[in-house]
Amino acid sequence: MRPFWIEQALFGDGELAPALQGAQRADVCIVGGGFTGLWTALQAKQKNPALDIAIIESDLCGAGASGRNGGCVLTWSAKFLTLRRLFGEAEAIRLVRASEAAVGHIEDFCRAHGIDAELRRDGTLYTATSQAQVGTLAPVMAALEACGIHSYADMAPEEVARRSGSARNLAGVYSPIAATVHPGKLVRGLRRVALAMGIRIYERTPMLDYRAGPPAVVRTPAGSIEAGKLVLAMNAWMAGSFAQFERTIAIVSSDMVITEKCPELLHQSGLVDGVSVLDSRTFVYYYRSTADGRLMLGKGGNTFARGGRIAPVFDQRSPYAAQLTEALHSFFPALRDVPITASWNGPSDRSVTGFPFFGTFEGAPHIGYGFGYSGNGVGPTYMGGQILSSWLLGEDNAWTRSPLMQGPRGQFPPEPLRYAGSIVVRNAIRRKERAEDEDRRPWLVDTMLSKLASAAGKADKQ
After folding, report:
1. CB 130 within 8 A of CB 198
2. CB 372 within 8 Å of CB 356
3. In this structure, what DSSP letter does residue 88 have?
4. Does residue 356 lie within any of the structural domains?
5. Eight-class DSSP state of 405
6. Between 306 and 44, where is the model more confident?
7. Measured between alpha carbons, how far is 37 from 381 in angstroms, rounded to an integer?
8. Is the dihedral of CA 361, 364, 365, 370 positive or negative?
9. Averaged over 413-418, what is the pLDDT?
10. What CATH number did the domain enclosing 358 receive?
């Protein structure tokens, strides 16, 4: 099943890129035609136009997480405390600033190359939808302000309700440094620019296996490609393809529904632009309007994969469509009679820290990788492109020296403990937040179990 965004983006997209045939060579081979792979190729090619780059993609560019997310271009500012704990204050400040700059870089790239990604830079609202959530972001707001990187403004409750379009949002903070996009049109637009720049793209070309070399050789169903450097940009699919990464990410779904066009009702609610709205749950609700007057709502933390394998359910209509529709109606009662156009889900590669990690294979420094965006990848994948393109070109800069380039930090428990534990913690979080929604005191055991979930999960959705 093609996700809604990709179906829209493919209309009038032109011919698909051919599958790889025969034995090919390139300076660089990138496995994965999503945001990370495309941004890496584009930035490397911009720096060195003579570089021969080939991308292989098992399906269509954007058919994975890049084309089925919520389209919220967010920064890392709301995760500053975790950044500081992991990497120190100086690097945390640099990464927050870089994540904010990435929003502008994406906007500038789209403008310069004529990519109509429906990008609207209208900011983001982090809200509270229960009294228990009120004030949860205060510590990070204070830390940002103390470091001089505070882009947020407190809003009065009535202004939060008006700006978000929903009285369910009781409190909140607003930052102008965020955007929303049509993710399918963005990823297909990047693909178009890459082809125009001379980057070879082979769609419907899965990697069957590879030989490390050097040079590295990737084998595909109808050919092979030899390259001096190999970049693995497969995101959630990395865990099932490489045993050394099986415990570095937990694969969990993000599920979405989208309505038919209803611009008049949205305007009446007060949701008049492209602001993204995220509440303060562990697995947040997030929503936004679209440029053509629909409402999209999503929620993470639903379906968990076993052992890093992408189950068929990740490519189907969301099994949580009814619950998401109920949540949409609770935010927007006036939309109760508006039909739901589509629902879908996709695999999110959640790391232990909640941040992506990059590195090279032990004993094969010409093979690089990057993944683990943890549900916030539309903006940070541009940073992933900065990291991997810097590595490809042998640069010594803040990106290649960043601790993000030092591989994964920590591992999840082995199976079956990871899967069983994920379900137990997820269900505890659901019970705890249901109690909070109803202004009841959660069970103590649910509160304790909920603390086992990564703190990075809050304010952490595309």
Report:
1. no
2. yes
3. -
4. yes
5. G
6. 44
7. 9
8. negative
9. 91
10. 3.50.50.60
